[in-house]
Amino acid sequence: MADWIPWVNLGLNVTGAALMVHFGLPKPIPFLGREDSDPIWGLLGLTLFATSIVVRISTILYTAT
Q: What CA–CA distances, in Å, run from 61 to 21, 33, 50?
């Protein structure tokens, strides 16, 4: 396995979470949305966070085979 994958995963996870906390998610997202959010940056944070989860799962599945 490449040695840089855990660092990319950590970077995506932390950056995505920081963007979601700082800018917030738009109101249509259940339980997490708020009125005073910046939807572009909030959704970018959600995308980065979800990408970190996908990278983690694909790494686990790749190393299991």
A: 30, 32, 17
pLDDT in tens, the chain (65 residues): 678 888 989 999 999 999 999 999 998 888 888 888 999 999 999 999 999 999 999 988 888 87
Question: And the tokens for 9?
Answer: 């995963």
R_g (Cα) of the chain, nearest Å = 14
Instruction: Give the tokens for residue 41.
Output: 């940056």
Q: Do 13 and 45 form a contact (C-beta atoms < 8 A)? A: no
What's the CA gap between 63 and 40, in Å, rounded? 34
